[in-house]
From TrEMBL:
This is Anti-sigma factor antagonist. Belongs to the anti-sigma-factor antagonist family. It comes from the Bacteria. It holds the Pfam family STAS. Residues 18-118 form the STAS domain. CDD domains: STAS_anti-anti-sigma_factors.
Amino acid sequence: MVAVPRSDTPGHARFRTVRARGELDIATLPELETDLVRALSDAEPPRVVVDMREVTFLDCSVVRVLLRARSTALSRAGWLVLVCAHVPVGRLLRRLGLEHHLPHYPAPDAIDTALVPAEDAN
């Protein structure tokens, strides 16, 4: 079974994190969607990191949900990025030609440098 915990970044953090692990597919999609909606509605503008470092498999249905969530974040002047440092996620994004549509970073530290405005880092 796959566990996709809820957003777990406390209070007034610079971004919300949704952690995913295991196999992500049509069976686990509802829980992931719920967590993404919660993270996207938690702050304005929405800044969401989907931590996929423990994902071992994902299918195209998950990519569709991630693209929709990113579109929602962008429409509200926010962002949604992935953290994934291993083969399954990056390989699928490359095969689908989506590596530029779903920005991804190897570690959360890279996100702070790339995306979080300087005034928020204090």
